[in-house]
User: Fold these one by one.
Assistant:
Number 1:
Amino acid sequence: MCFRHGSSSCRLFSTVERPVTERRETNGEVSAVARRRLDLLRQISDAGGTLSPLAEPNGKYGYRYPVAGDNVEDDLGSLLERNYLEARFCDRVSLCPRCGSHHLNVREVCPSCRSAYLTSEGLFHHFRCGYVGIPSEFIRLGDRGYRCPKCNGTMRHLGTEYDRLGRAFVCRGCGVISENPPVEAVCLSCRTRVAADKMVSTVVFGYVLSSRGAAAVRAGSFFNEAEELPTLEGAPIYKRPIILQFLEQEFKRRERLNSKFAVLLARFIQDGTDQGAAPSATEWLGRLRDCLRDVDLVGQLTAALYIVILPDAGPRDAESMRRGIAAKLGPQSPLDLSTPDIANQRDLAELLLLA
Amino acid sequence: MSGFVHYWLSTLDPLSNAGFSLAFPKLMITPLPHWWLLAVLPFVFMVFPSVAVWIVYVMKPSSIRPPLPAVPDQALPFVSVVIAGRNESETIGECIRAALLCGYPNLEVVFVDDNSEDNTVAVARRAALTATGSGRDGNRVRIFPSPRRNGKPSSLNIGIRMARGEFIIIIDADTILAYGSVQHWLVPFRDPKVGAVAANIRVNNSAKCLLTRFQEIEYALKTSNKVFQARFNLLYIISGMGGMFRAEILRRLGGYDTGLGDDRDLTTMIRKQRWKLALSVDAVVWTTCPETVNHLAKQRARWRRNVVKICISKHRDLYVPGRYGLANFMVAIEVLARIIIPLAVAAALFWTIFESGPLGAPEIISSIYWITILYLFMKMMIARDISNSPVLKNFLLAFLFPFYMLFIVQASQIYAEITELFRIGSKHYYVPDHIWEEIPWW
């Protein structure tokens, strides 16, 4: 329902200004969410403007936010996205790719049998026969060293008769020796086994109140972001005050610098029939924008009237462009294009009155 | 002297009466043992095995180059490629990449760095990453940087201990596995008595210079000989450049013994365990040969010293008839013959020259030369037919090949035999001091 035109088929209003409408329709719910988030900001502000997560094994990612309570991650994310908070890195948490649990047992496993029963041992190397093995393979001779299982020779002196070849992981299951065994995790929640490179991870942030957040706390409300934007939501169309500023600027330039400009009016006309899957007003305006030059500016004067400022263009140029644009948009276009002669601000005021 | 040179040069013409056409019949009717020493004995040792192999190959090719059995990937045994190297940063990357990309799915690479002083480990790790791509595949390569230099045998022992495969391939760090070679390598293991299989070693850098071309011919000629030896269980070496072993054998033996000649020593130990050795002509590995005479002479001298040390000193019990079977006894005799025959031929040559006088010598020398060329061409053609090596343009080098063998290979080998027998400079720089002092064999 178009509140401004009283028509349910006003597709312009139903698309370009839909978010505003929706906000109005769900006003009560939005207010509850906004109140909750504002309370969250206040709590952070009262806590000194900083929200640091604390390690908590039963928390969602092994952390919880002490001031804010539970399940505030979505609210914090939303506030961060809208610049009311700034994030500070705290930790990176590995998660089970199946159930998302952070209760993972990460350890090296045998590359052959995947057993985690590994021990780190220093390999022995007997110089005399070249035998290489783990210490448990060599027979211990008390204080007299070891006996080699290959040549039966005694190994008394480390460094002259035998040596340790660094440390390696030995699988107690199958005996395989590996220098860098693969790392694997077992999820303690769902028992899923996952290789280290297949684990998913998430970053846990601390939060600091931003100047915008502090201002919101002082004001007791959030800023209306839609009003702060210079363009309409979902379309590259300047709002009325903005485009009028641009227009005024062009008048000044023409007076002072003797530059020229022209305007193109686009009136959105609806025939009242059901358009089905026809392009929306936003799409038509997008197509209009595509037909224009980079330097041209498009703005909304009223709900159904749009103005295009064509810098460095005369009346004949504007007419030529109008014909070209109309041809590109095609006969089914709901945009009625015209090139009014606006010589001064008085002409503009008359035009606005008529609109 | 000028007359001697002129006469000798004239005898080099095989069509002249003084040349081979006259010398060969003369040799046949001579009452002296020239015929046996200069024509028959070389034929028996050099050409007859190749001719026999070639006849079998022509009649039944699959007996020399068996076709691959149709085996699903899941049924292929797990194979570990063990590489040990020191200061091999120039070649190790290509070696690891080739092993990983050789077309065999169930394979891992274990590289043991013997305390390199260059960036070998970094190159190996980079090669592993670039060849495998993902982290999971990264488990296919395991690298063990040894904290102390221990020599090649000990490094290989570390690799063998780390290897998980049912079969273990041992290659040098400058060796490249050819695509599809591992599948062919496994074929002889269908015989449960086969304990190790040698690869067909080809020269990677044969086009580099004249010396490497000669080596390509030499390796090709050896291949047909090895086929013969393998058929009669007389193969006496699985080269360290490329050999596949049953892992259980290597583990039971405790790996290599320290010191020189790791491959020949291990092969002898496996033979003593009564395992059969085989050769796969289609299991091709490419090796990089020495490109300078000095490097080549050192390499051959080292190999020959190993023969003397291992076959005459460490494993001399092979010469006791019946202790390790007839085949092992024959192998021992053959190895001994390979040491003695060059010395005997040299002695016979001097005897003949001494007996025939200065004018008789050119005829004998030219006879030896043309007989050698004749045998050489026969062997090269057989080798070419069986293993596609040497390349055709190297055939012309056959005329120079005897000089390569005589003045570089045989000279360095005879020098090595004499020095080793008299224990002159027996300590080799390849073996670290702390290992050498503990070796009980020599």
Number 2:
Amino acid sequence: MTAGVQSLTAGQSKVLQEFRQFAETEIVPFAGGWDRAGRLPRSVITAMAEAGHLGALVPVEYSGSASSLVDFGLLNEAIGYGCSSVRSVLTVHSMVSQAVTRWGSAAQRRHWLPRLAGGRWVGAFALSEPDAGSDAGRIATTATPDGAHYVLDGTKKWITYGQAADVFLVFAAIGGRFSAFLVERDTPGLTVAALDDMLGTRASMLAQLYFDGCRVPRDALLGRPGFGLAAVAGAALDFGRYSVAWGAVGLAQACLESSLRYASQRKQFGVPIAEHQLIQRLLTDMATTVSASRLLCLQAGELKDTGHPDALAAVWMAKYFASTAASRAATDTVQIHGARGCDPAGPAQRFFRDAKVMEIIEGSTQIQQTMIAQLVLQAA
Amino acid sequence: MVKATVKVFLSGFFKDHDFADDEDIFASGYANSLFVMQLIAMVEKEFLITVEDEDLDFDNFRSVDAIECFVASKNAVPVTT
């Protein structure tokens, strides 16, 4: 039973508990060690694959499980509860799977989807560059047609799981038209450099990718030239935001449960600190915002499952609210744990560092605010 | 019906401009990635079609007329022998 208000249906609750059981067995005991090592062992990715989690967004005919978007959200909550680094890999891998499912040719689907669903190949999303983050239209990587190939030149930065991913969804411009490419890791001309010791999600194995005359076959192009950002990246990022939003719910839930346990056990002034009203106020805010975040994520998932046009705005709102709520929850969790909250032996400091990252990835808090404003003004 | 639906959608973005049926939507310079993403989502939802990889051509979405033509082509029953 998870702490807090139970807002899920009985069926959803059962699904979440199954995912939580996986997380508590395969992830939670090891997350601190992975964070300190700055590495995820391939074994956890294999465990995710064997449990069917890497094929959640892949159609059944390609060996996926074609989960509902609500169930996919619950999966992200459970994995985010255990470790934000693992959840980050789930996010980017699912973004690549979604992009191939949505925009891949029949041949690309047949080739890639069974590999991605089974976890034999893990995907990573390569959009950000040193000078192009929120302003994705400034990406400088180019793809030059050359006979039966495209030649990629440029640099991608802060690519989640870039150190170990097998295939990258890379965005580059063909004569000014933004386009998407599936690039295998061992392609000559692609060099991967590790980015370690980042603030949070330290085990997500970020990397910088250098494309220097990297030749890929014409059929590496995913979607049509010119639709790389609007269609391919746009839809993938929508799924990424949705995944991060639910992951933030899981992270905040972990903060809540850790804080409730510690506040009930830790005694100061002769009583558990949970009996002090100023601590109760922190717990109240945490429990309330966890519930609100989950409800916004559920709303987004239900709208996405029905293909409702408002799903886009609902995902932005869910990601904006859940990521900022997780950040506050993690800050308060460190506060409740006091010196133990700052100790690397405990999870609170990891929650704190990971939560800040939630406010930056897949659209910063400020970008979410701007986009939500645009959408509500559009409808006014 | 298609034209009216598309025009209602466009009016949400272009509040002071009524598009002629053959007017180039992208010539306005407003067509950022968010607009294109929402346009595709609207076409799929309203007209119960799926925009596939091979449909990703700006000419399919360039004007109200083009969108109507595209929707009609997606809904056409394929000839079988």
